[in-house]
Amino acid sequence: MSTHDAVAAPPTAGEANYLNCSHGFRSWFFTLDHKRIGVMYLASILSFFLLGGILALLIRTELLTPTRTLMSADDYNKVFTLHGAIMIFLFIIPGIPAALGNFVLPLMLGAKDVALPRLNLASYHLYLIGALIAVLSIVQGGVDAGWTFYAPYSTTTNTAVVTLTFGVFVLGFSSVFTGLNFIVTMHKMRPAGMGWFDMPLMLWALYATSIIQVLATPILGITMVLLIVERVMGIGIFDPALGGDPVLYQHFFWFYSHPAVYIMILPAMGIISEVVSVFSRKHIFGYRAIAYSSLAIAAFSFLVWGHHMFTSGQSELMNMIFSALTFSVSIPSAVKMFNWLSTMYKGSIRFDTPMIYALSFMFLFGIGGLTGLFLGSLATDVHLHDTYFVVAHFHYVMFGGTVIAFLAGLHYWWPKMFGRMYDERWGRISAIIISVGFNITFFTQFVMGSQGMPRRYYAYVDKFEPYHVISSIGSYLMAAGFFMTAWYLVKSLYRGRPAPVNPWGGGSLEWQAASPPVMHNFTDEPVGGDPYDYTNQAYDPALGGYVLRKTEVSDR
Amino acid sequence: MSTPHEGRDEHADPHLQHHFGSMVQQYDSGKFGMWLFLVTEVLLFGGLFCAYAVYRANHPEIFAYAHQFLDKTLGGLNTLVLIVSSLTMAMAVRSAQLGQQRRLKQMLAATLLCACVFLGVKGVEYEHKWKHGLLWGTRYVPQGEAASPASTNATAVETTAGTVAVPADGGTTLPHAASGPEGLADRPQAGHDGATSGGHGPAGPAPRNVHLFFGIYFVMTGLHGIHVLAGMVAIVWLLRRSAAGEFGPGYFAPVDFVGLYWHLVDLIWIFLFPLLYLIH
């Protein structure tokens, strides 16, 4: 987190930008500038991504052999719990909205900041506090209840459940504040000429995400409160021995946590909508359909939580209803997918790093989404429930979907955020390595799962060993890709070519701000218009980026 | 951070933050944000209301029995106090809008006083529950008559006051309270008759798992109490700022927003009171 101070400002005409306009720890830690808060979020979530990734490698290494490889079974339980909790609550949920979203949202609106900058800072501070509390649970010996904290095990295990869940409770407030801020910003800060349907689709995605954050996260809050109260005071509400109902915990938990996977995937879809259009040099196909499908996904997200409990003793009628509603989520998801493909159709596609990630997203999310239908069908779910098939599905959606899209967005906006171009060749190579490594890791898990390998097991029967070995090798390949990415991105901060204002030829307003933007974002009022109209843009080889055509400029 | 940016149409209001074009836009944004925050608060309590609904639907007998240990008089008094506080809060907002500095401070102070009274009464109620072991989960150990149906000795309540024993066996074999403690609550079914109240329970034999009701009662009223406390902190903050004369017709947003929050806290109690105290 303290690395930002070392970020060297590129020599953009000697003008002060948001990175170098003030110095020192306080100027960052107590800043109200959405860009700095976004960068602090970015550094924080990447730190936790590294931590969660190391835990993932520990899991995969342990699973190389059917019995003990590295650690005891108890330690293994703690490692996968922490991997899940850190990746979900500290990385993926704040990942795209709070880090990238915070940076680009006001820029895309042509605004000077989010509507409530102090709340934005409070959200970051709460994130840090929640993260520290959550990490404190490691010092206290870890937690072994799984990231879902299912009662009654979570209420009876003698590990640091209270610390971790309290951390999650605090992180929930952070998430609510970010979402609330974004909704207010989009309602109240749009410039005069920008209607709802003139916004870039990233903003629609962030809007839908924010709605879920605001409406679902409080339920997580109260669930964590009840769990803590259950453990500390023995209130019995989830304890069958006291007349409580542990399935009620599952309902509460998934009422948040199912919408939460859409908190994770919707902004990712927003990034893909931007990247696909810009790198196909073609207007986005089906703008309204994509915008509405974001809202539709947000609405459906609240109606499908019961599909996590098909085998928990729900009534058959409820199972059927939840199954049907689960299937309906595939409609808006497919609407997006087909619109992206139609956008690419007859476009002049450029395979820059963000686009490679976007294509990878479509491939991986396609698999992840379709395998979700296997799990949404009642009959197959009974067979696949709690197997590696679920693990693979989840990772295809969350990693193949969200993380890959996050990387697409990170590379797409990196020049804007730091004013430096990364090494494009290494970018492409590591994008391909990460995608290939990902498929090796998780496709084998589909096979394992369909053959009955249960999730979360420490020891397994010998016949699964080849699959586990292949999966682990894939994870090492992925890790190599990530370290390459980290290396060339950090290198670009020091040695990268200064970024032009518009390196990719994007049409949304953030590409009219300097790279990196000045303190108040825009020196001149940005010129609005269709964010997906590229007809006026011309590539200027001298700048290494795009400029608006002269004739068009003089017309205004 | 709230220094006005030069070159804007508004006359330089010191409260206008740099990224807003006008005070109206700033006020609207804040108000919208506050309403959204209230939505999250409703949902936070919504989880508890949901738990209440589930348990009441599954175990109506627990609620019918256990609610009689709550004191309707004190609960009603608290309802009244909170409604009055909402009135004074609304008047405080009005005073801020009209720039009536003295009245603003008076109304805020009155609201704060009401909040103190509310928490005080709540404390008395909690203390009664504590004394009689009417607590949650494994700590539900009805003292006095509630614990031993045979006992009609009212002094048992006094002798065991404050000592709450936790049974060692996890609580599945909790003693079934056959009668309620004396002097705790009005008993509409039995009629208010102090002389005979020790003879039999409020509504016959106690059902199993009565502690679930008290668990829900304490979590709901406890969380509500925390919200009252948070509101009091906010009102003290408003009082300090109004003492400095910061609010007036041009700038009253903080008073307005805290007012909204306070009305929500009031409203939640308006739901809690009948759901916990006035059920049959």
Give an account of the 3D structure.
The complex is a heterodimer of chains A (556) and B (280). With 556 residues, chain A is an all-alpha fold. Chain A has one domain: Cytochrome c oxidase-like, subunit I domain (Cytochrome C Oxidase, Chain A, Up-down Bundle). Helices cover 65% and strands 2% of the residues of chain A. In chain A, helix 2 runs antiparallel to helix 15. By secondary structure, chain B is an all-alpha fold. Chain B has a domain of 172 residues: Cytochrome c oxidase, subunit III, four-helix bundle (Four Helix Bundle (Hemerythrin (Met), subunit A), Up-down Bundle). Chain B is built from seven helices and no strands. In chain B, helix 3 runs antiparallel to helix 4 and helix 3 runs antiparallel to helix 7. Chain B is elongated, with a radius of gyration of 24 Å. The N terminus of chain B is likely disordered. At the A-B interface, helix 4, helix 6 and helix 7 of A face helix 1 and helix 6 of B.
Overall tally of structural domains of chain A = 1
Indicate the percent of residues in helices of chain A: 55-70%
> Looking across the biggest beta sheet of chain A, what order are the strands in?
1-2
Q: CATH superfamily of chain A, called what? A: Cytochrome c oxidase-like, subunit I domain
CATH architecture of chain A: Up-down Bundle
**Count of β-strands of chain A:** 4
SS summary, helix count of chain A: 16
CATH class category name of the domain at 23-129 and 213-277 in chain B: Mainly Alpha
Indicate the radius of gyration of chain A in whole angstroms.
Answer: 23 Å
Structural class of chain B: mainly alpha
Return the CATH class of chain A: Mainly Alpha
- Span of the ends, CA to CA of chain A: 43 Å
Can you count the helices of chain B?
A: 7
CATH superfamily of the domain at 23-129 and 213-277 in chain B, by name, is Cytochrome c oxidase, subunit III, four-helix bundle
Point out poorly predicted stretches of chain B: 1-10, 147-201
